[in-house]
Amino acid sequence: MEPMIDLPAPEVLRRLALSESGFVFDPVTGNSFTVNETGLFLLRQIQHETDPSALMDAITEAFDIAPATAERDLVEFSGSLRQHLKP
Amino acid sequence: MRPLVVAVTGMNARADNPGPGLAVVRCLRESGRSLRIVGMGYDALDPGLYSDYCDVGYLLPYPSAGEDAVLARLDALHAEEGLDIVIPCLDAELPIFVALAPRLASLGIRTLLPDEAQLTARDKSRLTELAEQAGVSVPETRRISDTGFFNDAETQGFAYPFFVKGPYYDAQLVHDAAEGAVAFRRLVAAWGTPILVQRCVIGEEVNLAALGDGEGGLIGAVMMKKRALTDKGKAWAGVTIHDEGLLDLANTLARTLAWRGPLEVEALRDREGRHHLIEINPRFPAWIYLSAAAGRNLPALLLAHLLGEPMAETPPPPTGMMFIRAAHEIIVPLAAFESVMMTGRTPEASHD
């Protein structure tokens, strides 16, 4: 079954400026927030790939975790992103 | 060669609500021109009068003294300084400077200002009509004449909370009739009438500063999102952004009004990404130094436009350029303060 992951709109994700330090800046709203190393990896993936299955595959491979754990983390991260990002 | 003499008003700079004048003269100092900058204020305690950014400071009569009194004072300043350009920076003085612009022009003093019809069309109390004409969204705004409105605001379609606003400055979010009545009385005492009520739209405020060329075009737009506010809701920190919807809104308004002169467009971006016009300020904002930092020095562009110089294309300002405002003390020799109190002018030496 396809995981239920509700990401912000692709154009919103693509416009984000990501820094190596984990500082994230949205040039349209002027808002900024920080993410940890894992969050930065996810954001980089999400900027180019929003297909949930492909994302899950990338996460399970990169972090050597079970698909169920990857799905739970991705759902949680998507919720956090929606809180921080406006249309 | 004689420097260009530029007079700038708005030298008030209280930390919680600074006038734009000091930021404008700071921009002018970075224009690369040889300038003599004349700061003009209304109170001997306006700090900009004594700032090193100005070569000299003068007091003006308050706009309430009328056109003749203000013109007489400007005439006297002109005789002393040989003014080339005047940049008014305060909402409350704009009607007088707009009315005086032709007479200033006859003295050889240039201004980049809207005409009276343009100024009136963007008045806070006319925003609904302007929005209809321009085809843009504005939160419903209504003039009220007494505190009775607050007792049955909800039956008139204004659900609490909503904003109560003064004619030039100041806005307060009120949550019930008692709070509304207090805000009404405070705003009348501070700014006079009319008092306006404006529906509350949930969203994030975004701002744009630019010059209108008088033919429907915008020059040098710079966009900013406030990141921290003073107790009076003024920007204490902000960051440059690029919001295409805000730029579209400002272009539409400039075209509709054929705006001439500096302006600041304040808008709310709602959760769906739609923009709602909140205000058009007919002057540079206090955060205008950010325009110079972002490579679009708008006060310098104003000089170039008034001098008829070709306007070079400037690249889009970078996003993510921040400002954080800091309050600092200007040390004023008593003799300088005395001079302003007694003669309405700073002594030249106070700016050395």
Task: Provide the fold topology.
The complex is a heterodimer of chains A (87) and B (352).
Chain A: H1 10-14, E1 17-18, E2 23-25, E3 32-34, H2 37-48, H3 52-63, H4 67-84
Antiparallel strand pairs in A: 1-2, 2-3
Helix pairs in contact in A: 3-4
Chain B: E1 4-8, H1 21-29, E2 35-41, E3 56-59, H2 67-81, E4 85-87, H3 94-106, H4 116-121, H5 127-134, E5 141-144, E6 162-165, E7 171-174, H6 177-191, E8 195-199, E9 203-213, E10 218-229, E11 235-241, H7 244-257, E12 260-270, E13 275-281, H8 289-293, H9 298-306, E14 322-324, H10 334-343
Parallel strand pairs in B: 1-2, 1-4, 2-3
Antiparallel strand pairs in B: 5-8, 6-7, 6-8, 9-10, 9-12, 10-11, 11-14, 12-13
Helix pairs in contact in B: 2-3
- Span from first to last CA of chain A? 28 Å
Taken from the alpha-carbon principal axes, the silhouette of chain B is globular
Strand order of the largest sheet of chain B: 13-12-9-10-11-14
* Unreliably modeled segments of chain B: none
Strand order of the largest sheet of chain A: 1-2-3
Order of helices and strands of chain A: HEEEHHH
The level-1 CATH class of chain A: Mainly Alpha
Strand content of chain A: 5-15%
Total beta strands of chain B:
14
Looking at CATH, which topology of the largest domain in chain B would you report? D-amino Acid Aminotransferase, Chain A, domain 1
